[in-house]
Amino acid sequence: MRRALLPVLIVLSGCVPLPGDMPANAAVQSVAFPSMTHFITKPRMLPPLSNADVARDFLDLSFQLESGRALPVLTRFEGPIRVRITGAPSASLGGDLGRLLYRLRSEAGLDISTTNRSSAEITIHAVPRNDIQRVLPTAACFVAPNVTSLAQYRRMKHSTRINWSRMKRRDRLAIFVPNDVSPQEIRDCLHEELAQAIGPLNDLYRLPDSVFNDDNVHTVLTAHDMLILRTYYHTSLHSGMTREEVAAKLPGILAQLNPQGETRAPRHLPATPRNWISAIETALGPGASPNERRDAGAEAVTIASDLHWTDHRRAFSHFAMGRLLLDIDTDDALEHFKLADRYYARTPQTALHRAYVAAQLAARAISQADGKRALALLSPHFDTAARHENAALLATLILLRVEALDLQGRTAEAQAERLDSLGWARYGFGEDWAVRAKMYEISALNPLKNNTGGS
User: Fold this and answer.
1) pTM (2 decimals)?
2) Is the terminal CB of the chain with fewer CB neighbours within 10 Å at N or C?
């Protein structure tokens, strides 16, 4: 299931007022909202992956649950997969599902499509977010086997029928998604939960370029993920195979599916210890106090340092700590963001991660009226956000650029950029009030505006 980890880009400053207290910024108040903008789905190019690493990823993803509990056998659907929608779906769900299924057919080679039949292998049940969280308080969305509705899941919550470790093959399951959040959040749920519904059930923090990672940086299936799914449904594999049986087949399968990976050297990233995972979940998850979050964030940084990590997990530890310090020590937060960027820069496939860090660094530059530096920090990352179909991030980057341009007196350019951001913002943040709140939040970073109501 998707954990309700704090999204990696909720706030850019610890001093941003709430919507009811926002300054009367005329540029924000008077803006007319355009229609929602959508991404055009494009095939993903397979990154330079070693087949030795992919085989390890496949086994660790497929034979373990997120809790760490081992799964005895591989389970998957053993025939065509048909997907139906029930409940009260949002207006955007059908289109986004269609684009996702197209990618699964073309990139992962799956026989998967929509149907109206009640006998569908997968039911996507769209309900209010509160209904989901009354059942699983820490989940934004989730998938469960052998049920078709949330009511049925409630009745069977303690039954072995919905225990993944008891399954021998997959026949029918349900995905529960919210219908009252932003279109991007619904789409993100579709990608993660449908991928787990048909494929691996685990997430691994060691994967830098994957939705199968609880850091929530990647929100649409990557080329790595499609290779994992294509492997999952290779004709050489079937439900009921043990880890050892699958491991014996993987070299031949991957040599066929990813021939260039045969000659690439593996990275051999170390496993992620449970104490680091627990620290990150406390730092960014629900239920902890601010002090508990900061203590857990500091623990994650210490563990990463003691393990001599230099990969994206070390970077994410610093990024999380920077986020947690924004409200109390912006200088210390800035140092953690700089360290995060330094470690991300040393790790392949982390362009999207660096875009998130750049947003934080640019926000700080804007708060110090340094528009030139903010523009330099932002400029490499717009294409990255678009390529990864992250409208919330793309809109945020553009709105930060608006403030940087305003600081340089480039008012006409700033106004044009602001209008360009709004279609993406409507997809990324949802309702008009949420878009305006994000606009106010970023506008308030600008020292020329945040107490003056400037244009």
Assistant:
1) 0.91
2) C
